[in-house]
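Question:
When you can, review this sequence-structure pair and walk me through the tokens.
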Amino acid sequence: MDIVASHGVLMSKKQQVEKVQKCNAVVSAFQSGLKERTPIAKPVEEPEERAAPSTSQQCSLPGREECKVNQEAWSRLRDGKGVEPEELDKSYQLTPPAFVRPKREADDDQPVDIELGTREQPPSDEMCEVCEVWTADDLYPCRICTRVFHDGCLRGLSYLSTEALQEMRDVAHTVTGWSCYYCDNLNLLLTEEEMYSLMETFKQCKIIPESCLVSDELLQYRHFASKQQFDKDLTDEQEEEVLAQFSGLDPDKKGHIEWSDFLYFESLAVLRKLRSENSLVRLMTGKERDKARSIFQSLDLDKDGVITQGECRQAQQSWFQKGNKDSQSCNVSISHVGPICESSPTSSGSDRSKTDDSRPVSWAEFLKESAIYILAARPNSSAMHIRMPL
């Protein structure tokens, strides 16, 4: 049998021809759909690029329309899905995938044995996650998992705006990297039970899914949550902390928080509250573990398998290098970041982080203490979804 080597992948001529034919079939079908579709008044991307109405604005919608919009939003939030196939109003759009929420396993809280000296280096998939066609250099990899994508397939899914697609093209093959729509969505790490609990809190606090939040709405939400959990209002100091949270979640100073950033923030809070450190370590991917190894080993100059607590915090800060897309340097300024996560071990009220810089930290401890920051760094958004270690 004749074997052809292409881009480091061995395949027979028959396999190569079959892949080319499959690719041509997909392209032809897509082009046919473009020719046959009826003209539309607005570009597909326009609704995605407009800011979503705030919670207060959505409350002013007519009763019947508001009920339908809210019901659809709650459904998508519960199932972790995008628009359902039957709801697509463009015949040439591809069908979004149905996400499956994880389940808690009996051994989730048990220690995880991850070797420091063995690099995993998981290879990226060969075929596009959406169309399952191999086209070599035209595929864009996710920096978190092994999935790869065609930009045209992502455009067909209508998951990304024109701006987001261009950002993917710019950074996917750089040190910064790009997170796919699976890994970018931190809410998908929650189980059905955890998601149900979070949804109930949203409903009680009158938070409408897929809406933006202004600072007053975030304050009201925090006041209500404090009343529900601790039976007391926020103090003046706590209100200032909430406003600092708002600033961290609104890095571009738009005056509102995007729904996705608020949802990711709340999802991380649920993970911190309900999951053990060992459980969080199990959520990390091979690529994330390899990056953690590289950072730890670069700090462990004497190669004894131990670094200091101060170096550990320095490493945790380096996970957010994605926020600086211009320099792509690990030396990212985080002076603007406020106290984002009240349950963080470095939150106000604890001076332990300031006086314990010399405490020795092993590789296993480093992974457990860094896991929440590693997960928080997954989204492509420049918003800070957790408080940085001091």
Remarks:
- The chain has a mean pLDDT of 76.
